């Protein structure tokens, strides 16, 4: 599943096209969740991201795209996979495959809380701390994947940020010192931007310290288990990461 930084890359690729409030001249694909005619001859006001969602913003509605587990996109190209949604402009085309497409009424600026997006200029770490404290019994490995708190965090960011902060994934919020919570939030944001940089370079895998690894950078064995209520695959080092209790 693409994480927040990968969706930012999609936006940057589209922003590099010579598009300025472009008019959609053709809508294609087998999407059933929206009326395709609603998009025809509409002008896109801007492209935005919120966590794992790619947003195509119009004056009074927004198309929200989630690439889910296996979603892909192509710009000015096609493939044999059934097309979910294709948008054709005067000189360019954007195609989305195996994804979830929704139409939300209203202006995007009013529809979303941008303060929960880990890569947004409006990200609010104080709000994140407040929300964490409201969930004292939650395991940190679960709550880091809550898109209403950490929009954009996926399994890679979760595992790597917990290792950076030296926190065991089964630590509960109520047991974490405030200093550790602040450190973890900084690690989440910092790793997300490192992720973006390395993903652009094509070197992301080379920088993994625990995710999909056998040993941590200090040579200790990495444990791989499905943890928490989410039962998501988690990689961690019991030697380096302290379980708070």
UniProtKB/TrEMBL annotation:
A GO biological-process term: base-excision repair
Protein's UniProt keywords contain Protein transport: no
Any Pfam family matching the protein: H2TH
Entry's Gene Ontology molecular function annotations: damaged DNA binding; DNA-(apurinic or apyrimidinic site) endonuclease activity; lyase activity; oxidized purine nucleobase lesion DNA N-glycosylase activity; zinc ion binding
SMART domains the UniProt entry points to: Fapy_DNA_glyco, H2TH
Family named by the database record: Belongs to the FPG family.
Protein name (record): Endonuclease
């Amino acid at each position: 599943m693409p994480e927040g930084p990968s969706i930012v890359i999609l936006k940057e690729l589209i922003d590099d096209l010579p598009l300025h409030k472009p008019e959609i001249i053709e809508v294609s694909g087998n999407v059933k969740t929206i009326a395709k005619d609603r998009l025809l001859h509409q002008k896109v006001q801007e492209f935005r991201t919120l966590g794992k969602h790619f947003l195509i913003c119009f004056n009074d509605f927004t198309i929200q795209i989630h690439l889910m587990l296996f979603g892909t996109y192509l710009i000015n190209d096609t493939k044999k996979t059934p097309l979910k949604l294709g948008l054709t402009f005067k000189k360019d085309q954007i195609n989305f495959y195996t994804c979830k497409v929704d139409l939300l009424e209203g202006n995007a600026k009013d529809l979303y809380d941008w303060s929960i997006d880990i890569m947004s200029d409006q990200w609010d770490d104080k709000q994140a701390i407040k929300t964490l404290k409201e969930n004292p019994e939650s395991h940190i490995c679960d709550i880091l994947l809550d898109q209403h708190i950490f929009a954009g965090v996926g399994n890679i960011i979760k595992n790597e940020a917990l290792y950076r902060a030296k926190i065991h994934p089964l630590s509960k919020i109520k047991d974490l010192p405030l200093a550790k919570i602040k450190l973890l939030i900084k690690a989440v944001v910092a790793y997300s931007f490192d992720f973006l940089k390395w993903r652009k370079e094509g070197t992301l895998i080379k920088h993994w310290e625990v995710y999909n690894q056998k040993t941590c950078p200090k040579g200790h064995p990495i444990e791989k288990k499905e943890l928490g209520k989410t039962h998501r695959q988690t990689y961690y080092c019991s030697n380096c990461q302290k379980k708070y209790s």
